[in-house]
Specification:
heterodimer; A: 459 residues; alpha/beta; Rossmann fold; 6-stranded parallel sheet; 4-stranded mixed sheet; 21 helices; B: alpha/beta; 5-stranded parallel sheet; 6 helices; globular
């Protein structure tokens, strides 16, 4: 078992100490969810689009090997150098190999959750390579020496005053300035210098087209393009599940991605990279890192359809009130909680329990991943495999017994009502997890069964 | 024993674990062309912070630029017939030399009404970096080229080949600091779209 201090419940407790911040975090994410709804409601064929996207991904998963081979052949025909990495370590070595061959010691990156998953920055720093993240939110968490707390909004947990203080210390903005416009301008100027002085750029990949060998990178800021078009060497890293069969399928996914993520109709830039520009070297790294294993888990393979929009996080009542860092994994929230146990069941055994199973995630998912069902199924796998806290396992057994026996259920109900009526202090205290942030309910005089016996049997 | 390469071992694992293949069905319909989507396009462009200017001649671009942008010699264009130079761009020129462009005026292939995205490919840019590094960007789109949605967009791209191409929808932006929308992140601070009839 990992240290209890690192589990979701304990980390969420720490986040919940500042109630005002929790409310702010909750409301900000709900506002984004509301923007998503507004954008979606303008598309009458939205459900059809989700169905099509989900179906294309189903089709890809069943033909993943042949599409990867087709993609590789087309990339090579386009003049792109292709690498295959079975795990994070191999991915990182490939990146380092490309850089050291050219004697490059500085790298500028655009957002790539995959490189977060591979812990590339830490690896390269040990090798003496300076890495700068260029997405504003990612740059902020990098300067703060933190991890992103959301895949689309990396510093959603931070207040502008904290960012102002951070920029004052690191970028030399005036002390006490927290106006987002001034801070963004400071970052623009700082990063322009970076873009103009780096010989190598690494970007993520949103979609890769087998048919043409092109890959698409989406940003609002323009940082991926600023980095890639100024660099002599462009490295693109992608998980093998990012592949789609044909270019026309981009029409389906680009319609879904940003509407689901932020409520925008599309990102500012949807850049299609096909051939390196004259004099440039372009590399593409295909990364497995557990994906082929997840492909073999029938109950969980649907999670490979994910297009990383973050809609499931914005809508999740647990994520919104516990913060991204409480998930102690690169991808937080509902989707992260089904992806993480695939990589390490023991370390992430707590995550599928960080959910109310309300199903809101499943309802907003643009590729129709049955997220809440998978969370429920992971719980069973993890309990069976013995990765779950004994106390929780015993409590669940007791619950199972109570719910399956009429006598036990009646007795438990009576006991509950008695306690709440005559000895409320035994539950209205902080030893009871259900009392935190809540009042215990008023007790009815009798159970429904007793009431029905008395009043309901005549007709 | 021969050691499998990473490629071979990844493909072998995928073959072993992949589900039964389902045939690909196309559900989404491509809207018919020929309809006019100018109003939807203009509404969406405004929503995402772009300016739409309808013009009939290329000369109108010059007068609009004179009225709305500061007078500077750092205006760049790849469009023949307007008085801004393309600075004799060479394919091999370093993108860095364009870092002080104030305004770039570039032609584009077509635009999409549902999201106000404009498709521009490499040969229209002069250099790949130009639409991103310029302080302000203007794109010139033929009025007859506006399609309804992204399905129609890709249908109209069947015959286009490009080494690099991009949909640009509005000026660059970020909301990473407390979700405050700030226009002008790393790319252009404004986008003007000239619709030319």
């Amino acid at each position: 078992m990992h240290k209890p201090k690192d589990n979701h419940a304990a980390l969420a407790d720490a986040f919940n100490e500042d109630t005002a911040r929790v409310d702010w975090h909750d409301e900000t994410l709900w506002w984004i969810r509301a923007k998503r709804d507004k954008a979606v409601q303008q598309i009458p064929e939205w459900e059809e689009l989700r169905e099509q996207a989900s179906h294309i991904k189903d089709h890809v998963l069943g033909n993943l090997d042949t599409y990867l081979e087709e993609f590789e052949a087309n990339l090579q025909a386009n003049g792109v150098i292709v690498h295959w990495a079975k795990d994070a370590a191999e991915h990182n070595e490939i990146v380092h190999g490309i850089l050291s061959k050219k004697d490059i010691r500085q790298l500028v990156k655009s957002k790539s959750m995959l490189t977060e998953e591979c812990h590339l920055n830490a690896y390269l720093e040990i090798k003496g390579i300076d890495v700068i993240d260029s997405d504003l939110g990612e740059r902020i968490v990098q300067l703060a020496k933190e991890a992103p707390s959301h895949i689309v909004l990396p510093c959603i947990h931070k207040k502008k005053e904290e960012i102002g203080e951070l920029f004052f210390r690191t970028l030399g903005t005036p002390e006490g300035v927290s106006d987002p416009k001034i801070l963004t301008e400071a970052a623009r100027n700082h990063l322009r210098e970076v873009f103009l002085s780096r010989r190598a750029a690494l970007t993520g990949v949103n979609f890769a087209v087998a048919e043409t060998g092109e890959f698409v990178v989406c940003t609002n800021e323009g940082n991926a393009d600023m980095a890639a078009h100024l660099a002599d060497v462009h490295i693109a890293s992608m998980g093998i599940e990012k592949i789609i069969p044909k270019r026309k399928h981009l029409g389906v996914f680009l319609r879904l991605l940003t509407r689901s993520a932020t409520g925008q109709p599309i990102t500012t830039y949807s850049s299609h990279y096909k051939r390196p520009r004259a004099g440039q070297e372009m590399h593409l790294i295909l990364v497995d890192n557990g994906r082929s294993v997840q492909l073999g888990r029938e109950d969980f393979r649907n999670s490979l359809k994910c297009i990383r929009c973050g809609a499931c996080m914005n809508t999740c009542p647990v994520y919104r009130r516990s913060g991204g860092h409480s998930y102690h994994t690169v991808i937080a929230g509902p989707i992260g909680s089904i992806l993480a146990p695939n990589l390490d069941m023991e370390k992430h055994a707590d995550l599928p329990f960080a959910s109310t199973l309300c199903g809101s995630c499943t309802n907003v998912c643009p590729v129709k991943i049955d997220i809440h069902n998978q969370l429920y199924k992971w719980r069973q796998v993890l309990v069976k495999a013995g990765y779950v806290d004994k106390k929780k396992a015993v409590a669940m057994q007791a619950m199972a017994y109570t719910l399956s026996s009429t006598t036990a259920f009646d007795l438990a109900g009576k006991a509950g009502r008695m306690i709440l009526k005559y000895a409320p202090f035994t539950v209205n205290n902080n030893l009871n997890a259900w009392y935190k942030n809540r009042e215990m309910p008023k007790v009815p005089k009798m159970s429904f069964k007793e009431w029905f016996k008395k009043n309901g049997s005549d007709e | 024993m021969e050691v499998m390469s990473s490629k071979e071992s990844m493909l072998a694992a995928i073959r072993k674990n992949k589900p039964l293949a389902v045939p690909l069905k196309e559900i989404c319909e491509v809207p018919k062309s020929g309809d006019l989507y100018h109003d939807l396009f203009a509404r969406q462009a405004e929503f995402i912070g772009a300016r739409v200017i309808r013009i009939n001649t290329l000369e109108a671009i010059e007068s609009y630029v004179n009225e709305n942008f500061i007078a500077t010699d750092r205006i760049f264009s790849t469009i023949k017939g307007i008085p801004y130079s393309s600075a004799g761009i060479q394919a091999s020129a370093s993108g860095h030399q364009f870092s002080d462009i104030e305004l770039a005026i570039l032609p584009a292939h077509f635009a999409v009404a549902e999201n106000a995205a404009v498709w521009i490919s490499e040969e229209q840019m002069g250099q790949r970096i130009i639409p991103f590094i310029c302080q302000h960007l203007a794109l010139v789109v033929p009025a007859s080229s506006i399609v309804k949605d992204m399905h129609a967009a890709y249908a109209s791209m069947t015959d286009l080949d490009y080494g690099f191409g991009t949909f640009i929808a509005g000026p660059s932006k970020t909301a990473d600091i407390e979700q405050s929308l700030i226009i002008g992140a790393h790319g252009a601070r404004s986008l003007t779209i000239f619709i030319i009839s």
